[in-house]
Amino acid sequence: MESHLVVLLPLAAVWLAAGWLADRLPAAEQARELRRRTGHVLALTATGLVVTAAVLAVGLAGTGPTTIDRATAGLGLAVGPALVVSACTVRRVRRLRAGAGAFAAAPLTPAPHGLRAAAAHPLVGLPPQVTGLAMLPAVIGSLAPDLPTGAAGPAITVGALGVAVIGVRHALRHSRLVERAAPPAPTSARTAGALHV
CA 140, CA 131: separation in Å to the nearest integer? Predict the structure, then answer.
């Protein structure tokens, strides 16, 4: 096994776990459960961001082909989505955790539809999932170095289509939960009077 996989495999596992848990946030039916899940997502994303930044800092400061340098090269695709996680996802999950905490005093308080809609926002689940998926090519390339070079093009296409499908799924789920959270449209007395005339 390649030595830099000791760094890449746990880091990929952290990002994939963060993406999986972030995807499950809208399924929380109780406020206490939503608060607990957001805590797990925050812990995993913070771990992923700190380790990713540390590997990049050490790798970019290095002078020779060390284990960390090879791991840094494998993080090339994951840097962009990780930046989106740090700029958008962490802030949204922290606000979501605070909102769920306001309802979590009673153990069986249901999670409001508004909080579940916020949990389903594409910027909550998609960036950690994309970060985890972006690390897979480096891991697979290190585990199976004999893969044909022509496989890169189809793999990138399949990966891009997979990300698009995940993004559409997040957007549809968010829209559905936003509709549930919206208050019912008020009935107008003027409209009712006009119908009786």
Answer: 15
Query: What's the whole-number mean pLDDT along residues 88-102?
Result: 92
Distances (CA, A) of 158 to 8, 144, 151: 22, 18, 11
CA distance 177 to 121: 10
What pairs with residue 110 in β-bridges?
A: 30
Eight-class DSSP state of 78: G
pTM of the model: 0.82
Three-state secondary structure call for residue 110: strand
What are φ and ψ of residue 15, in 5° steps? -70, -40
Between CA 192 and CA 171 the distance in angstroms is 36
* Cα torsion 69, 157, 146, 149: sign: negative
| pLDDT(195) > 60 | no
Place of tokens 């390649």: 2
Query: Cβ(23)–Cβ(130) under 8 Å?
Result: no
Per-residue confidence band for 78, with pLDDT thresholds at 50, 70 and 90: confident
Backbone angles phi, psi at 5, to 5 degrees: -65, -25
> Please, what is the Cα angle at 137 between 25 and 6, to 5 degrees?
85
Instruction: Name the residue with higher pLDDT: 111 or 59.
Output: 111
Look at residue 74 and tell me whether its pLDDT is greater than 80: no
